[in-house]
Amino acid sequence: MRPNISGHAQLFHSIQALRSLGIDAFAIAVEVVPGELLALVENLRQQGVSVDLLRSGPEAARFAQETDLVLVQNAAIWIAPAVLDEVIRAQTETIFSLAEDPAYADFERIDLNRRWAGIAVLDPSLIGDAIELPDGWSLDSFLLRKALQAGYPVAQSRPDRSPEAVAIHCRAANSATVIASAIRLPTATSGWLDLAVERLSDAAISRWNSTGWWQALAQWMPVAAAALAAISAGLAFSVASYWSGFVAIAGLAVRRRTNQANYRAGNLGGAGWLAVAVLLAALFVNLRGEVGGAEGLFLTISFGGLAINGAASRLPIAARLLSPLTLALILAIMAGAGYAVAALKLLIVLMIVVQLVPMRGKSELNAN
Question: pTM, whole model, 2 decimals?
Fold first, then answer.
């Protein structure tokens, strides 16, 4: 149960893979409930997921009465969502197996030539027999034996499928690297600076995400840094304001990364938009003191609108050369050198250019 894959236990990612396919009720069969499992269940319940802990055969039997079809998956095995989707859509009671192979030596044997792949679709009436579960038996093995005795068909996983559709069969002891690669969060296309922030975020998520404080820090760091930028601007500390703005933009990237690791929406959200609004207000205060109110407002709206549009549109050139994080760093450096306004005007021109180039190509394609 130790959290070692993007800050979470393997079971968390298995449940999220099933959630992405529309399954909204889960039961975890355990004999002893460790503290890590309780924390995982509480985390999932806070996200609106229905999770039951089954600690005996009678509890499993009662759970089976509330559903029409049951997907049984060994908790030590992670299976790719593409395969799970195929299994769920089939809506057919089936045991899935692996061919006898040295690579699958740790998997439970079905017969002389096959091993259980760790997943089966069962009629809930079969789980009703769990009331007979002997002490010391695992529920999934018990159900596997019952399904075999009931004559359930056995479908062998085909190793010749494309990589996108192949289940990743691996035991919990050695699966962290494999699963982390399979669920790897999408990396930014905006350059070395954004990539460095994302890699630092991933390292922090893996180490601290489950403790709670890191999630709170990731959520509110952008707002706190933006507020500091606004205060610095109000006190006429423009350089400190720009550097605080850079920290706030980096914090938004960390926040997005943390939300992705927790399978939350990757958009800005209320706190993110608040940080952006405060940063733009701080920029206006800085510019009003240097170029006046009217021109300062024009530059603020132009710069903010172009930056937000470029980030949202995922334009190839803009994302690679002029991401919001890169823009904030350039402004902070140039403000220290005394050229913040000139740099801002130049960046606005560059953003217009890089955002018009793809638009021009698109219109030419449409015209043809």
Answer: 0.71
Other CB atoms within 10 A of residue 193 CB: 16
Residue 118 neighbours by CB distance under 10 Å: 24
Closest CA to 251 of 281, 210, 217, 283: 217
Query: CB-hemisphere CA count at 13 Å for 82?
Result: 11
CA distance 123 to 39: 30
pLDDT at 180: 61
What are the tens digits of pLDDT across the range 155-178? 876 544 444 334 444 444 455 555
What per-residue confidence (pLDDT) applies to 69? 78
Q: Are 9 and 75 in contact (CB under 8 A)?
A: no
**For 336-364, how does the pLDDT look when each residue is reduced to its tens digit (9 = 90+)?**
999 999 999 999 999 888 877 755 444 44
CA distance 193 to 330: 12
List, for residues 115-136, the tens digit of each pLDDT value.
888 888 888 888 877 777 777 6
Amino acid occupying residue 4: N
Amino acid at 344: L
**Alpha-carbon gap, residue 77 to 120, rounded angstroms:** 12
Give tens-digit pLDDT for 178-236: 566 666 666 665 678 888 888 888 888 877 776 678 888 888 999 999 999 999 999 99
Dihedral angle computed from the Cα positions of residues 256, 261, 263 and 264, in that order, rounded to the nearest 10 degrees = -30
